[in-house]
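Quick one: structure for this chain?
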Amino acid sequence: MQGEEIIKQSAAYRGQKKFDEAIELIESNIENISDDIKLNAWHEAFLAAQEKGDSGLARQYALLIAGEEPSMPSIQKFL
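Got it. Here's what it folds into:
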């Protein structure tokens, strides 16, 4: 699937606490990520925003995710 490496790299940035880089990587490559894993990409960006402490941005990603998977546990407090 196209985009798996992008998601993995974003997760690696999160692990290094490079939250802005993690988010930017997803945002700048979202069109190159297969539709069937795009939700994973948005969730990765959501986690980076949440870990960064940016509740507003985390909510934006939570709303995107909720459009596809409204019952995802990790986004509930941002809806």
